[in-house]
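Appendix B, Record 12. Input sequence as logged:
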Amino acid sequence: MPINIPRDLPAKEILEKERIFIMDDVRAVNQEIRPLNIVILNLMPEKEKAETQLLRLLGNSPLQVHITLLYTASHKAKTTSKNHLDQFYKTFEQIKERKYDGMIITGAPVEHIPFEEVNYWKELQEIMDWCKTNVTSTLHICWGAQAGLYHHFGIDKRPLSDKCTGVFTHVVSSEEPIKLLRGFDDVFYSPHSRHTDVDMNEVKNHPDLELLSYSEEAGVYMAMSKDEKFVFVTGHPEYDVQTLQEEFLRDTEKGLEPKLPEHYFPNNDPDKNPLKTWRSHANLLFMNWLNYYVYQETPYLWE
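Logged structural output:
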């Protein structure tokens, strides 16, 4: 089944060329199907890129998914046009009376800033509190995962001496069968791109959290609240194959002398095109989340 997105959203044309099954909102109203309502809080600066990456994964499911795009009103976007936001996005004030089956909170390039000093932190806190009663399951990605762990469970981020960037090997840490991990290989890959991390022991020892997956090099990868309402992914499984390359070239052009992403370029040669080794993991992760933690758990009619 398709994802349901606005007819004129720029991502629509890209996804159609990739044969991702999508349906615009005009056609969707004619189907007598109760779609899953997913809201994406997009904190990424290049919102159109992030939209496409996430919609690609949400579209790889037998479920019909209706998407609402959300941005923080307390932060002025610098790299996304006001017209795009006005046409395709809503603010929290516009949706806070609604119920949603699932929510995704993306990463954001504000890792060097203490949470309380981020200019939209209070608004984000209000949204994360709202998720407890208005959303069946919330998936947090990268900085969004760190923000969620801090807000809900008091686990703060810590600075890294060097940026964690590259494609790393991960293993499953839970000995119990976990629905989110169903079908995972013993070893799988995912990109990371961050300057901070969280302490693995704090996650493992927290009574309300379960560590699901980690990397010997990149640390905590996936964790989940014991009540299964909150999922935290510290990497970027949604990234396109060229995203880390674009970040590296961007920072190089700025004269920042960035660290070469690890295990990414063939033979560590930035002149060679990288291979995407995490596609199957990313698709399975999002499919499992949609199926087991959203579709199987959400009420048909919210009260």
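Confidence is low (pLDDT under 50) at residues 26-32.
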